[in-house]
Amino acid sequence: MKINLQIIAAAALLFCSGSAFAQIDSTLLNTPAKTDTTKHSLSMDAVYNRPFLKLGKTPVSIGGYIESDVLYSNTSGITNGSQFQFRRFSLFVASTISKHVKFLSEIEYENDPTGDPGESSGAQFGIEYAAIDIEFNPLVNLRGGLILNPIGSFNQNHDGPKYEFTDRPIAMTQMLPDTWSNTGFGLYGKQYANHWMFGYEFYVTGGFDDAIIDNTQGKTFLPAANASLTRLTSSASGEPLYTGKLSIGNDKIGQLGLSYMGGVYNTWRIEGAQVDNKRSVNVFDVDFNTTIPRLHTAITTEWAWIFVDLPADYTPEYSHRQYGGYIDIVQPIIHGRILDWDNATVNLAVRGEYVDWNQGNFVATGQRMYNDVWSIMPAISFRPTPLTVLRVNYRIQNARDITGNTIGAAIGPTRGLSFGVSTYF
Q1: Residues 6 or more apart from 57 whose CB is under 8 A from it?
Q2: What are phi and psi of 139, to 5 degrees?
Q3: What's the CATH fold of domain 8-424?
Q4: Is the N or the C terminus of the chain less surrounded, counting Cβ atoms within 10 Å?
Q5: Looking at residue 357, what DSSP letter applies?
Q6: Is 125:291 a contact under the CB 8 Å cutoff?
Q7: Burial per residue of 45-54, b for 16 or more beta-carbon CB atoms within 10 angstroms, e otherwise
Q8: Roughly how many angstroms between the first and final C-alpha of the chain, as a whole number?
């Protein structure tokens, strides 16, 4: 959930008026750099590692991306036919305020029915990110404002044009909160040595609330907290949410990220009087990406584990433990001049994903609980340039209820075909 705002029209006007005299700022492009000191990149660089247009001699740069798709799906023999979806329009506005002080914001229109069910339905305009960075040293930088919590890689690295798939990963949108951002402050830093890269981030922010165990989903559901705007100005628990990440990478091997997010989520005190025990939520995440030399096969994967302290009288549908993640494999099969594009690529890709919302066994019987989903999504994509992608996906998905049964239209097998386009601008 992003902050609703009235300045979208003004920001759009700024974009339209500025693009007439803009030129590409090559230092911010997500392309191979010209020097050894700038070619290194970690997932934490994703918010700035985007194509921007610099507005003449002003300190302001702008950019953005769009996503639009058409989907035909069938769940247990039931279909709504073809659905045309304009999912996202994001506008980036960045500024170098002074030496070692910079600002970046992301303003987004979103209407994604396949995304976070915890968000309010219908189209939304809002602020997804707005933070000030102050650099004291490459290893010590202060960031404050509305930030993306660095849990895993996808939460910070979610732009549609980067992926060969029309949908975002299920685990990162329906187990973890999609584009989870909060008000807060923290430190981050990076160090490069030859082919090696090291980075860290640590933030204290607002966080979750009682909605993660009191929601319309009827299960432990972290994305439900995304629906509350009050979390950006007040905390249900009065306690900070801690998020930290360590990243290590090598130009020739790949990049590994280890992250943690946790804190008290419940309203345990009202007007100074304790009404409940403090209950915590803890999330552990590991992500990895690499490219196999010569074959240029790109592999991206992320898996997360969630632990939630529940009241003793909760039913088994609300789980203490959840687990899930995904793996993307992308193989270029044609690269070079296609039609009038000199640097075009055709890719074959596949995504495998799994989420278990109820890890563990029933206390009464000792039998395993399920409430899980798995999906395989083969894809083919065409990139006329690295910044634009046309993609065709076919989803094969099965889900089971808590007892392991695959019954009913709501949880039956799903098959779907989608075509989409996404591009930076």
Answers
A1: none
A2: -95, -5
A3: Porin (2.40.160)
A4: C
A5: S
A6: no
A7: bbbbbbbbbb
A8: 24
Q: State the Cα angle at 202 between 198 and 206, rounded to 5°.
A: 150
From CA 346, how far away is CA 416, in angstroms rounded? 22
Closest CA to 299 of 307, 309, 288: 288
CA-closest candidate to residue 143, choices 151, 131, 129: 131
Q: Cα–Cα distance between 116 and 132 in angstroms, integer?
A: 27
The per-residue pLDDT string of the chain (425 residues; one tens digit each, 9 = 90 and over) reads 444 444 334 344 333 333 332 333 333 333 333 333 335 689 999 999 999 998 888 889 999 999 999 999 887 677 888 899 999 999 999 999 999 999 999 999 988 666 555 444 556 788 999 999 999 999 999 999 999 999 999 999 999 999 999 999 999 999 999 999 999 999 999 999 989 999 999 999 999 999 999 999 999 999 999 988 788 888 899 999 999 999 999 999 999 999 999 999 999 999 889 999 999 999 999 999 999 999 999 999 999 999 999 999 999 999 999 999 999 999 999 999 999 999 999 999 999 999 999 999 998 888 999 999 999 999 999 999 999 999 999 999 999 999 888 755 445 578 999 999 999 99
Q: Enter the pTM of the model.
A: 0.86
Longest dimension (CA), the chain: 70
User: What's at 10, amino acid-wise?
Assistant: A
- Residue 310 token pair: 């529940």
Kindly state the tokens that stand for 128. 């997804």
Structure tokens at 131: 């933070």
Cα dist from 259 to 45, 48, 99, 242, 262, whole Å = 15, 20, 30, 11, 10
Distances (CA, A) of 366 to 49, 119, 312, 320, 363: 49, 35, 17, 16, 6
| 118 secondary structure, DSSP code | T
Distance of alpha carbon 223 from alpha carbon 67, whole angstroms: 22
Q: SS3 of 412, please?
A: coil
Contact 154, 285 (CB under 8 A): no
Cross-strand pairs, 94: 61, 104
The helix or strand, by DSSP H or E, that contains position 10, with its residue range, turns out to be helix 8-19
Measured on CA atoms in the order 273, 279, 281, 282, is the torsion positive or negative?
A: positive
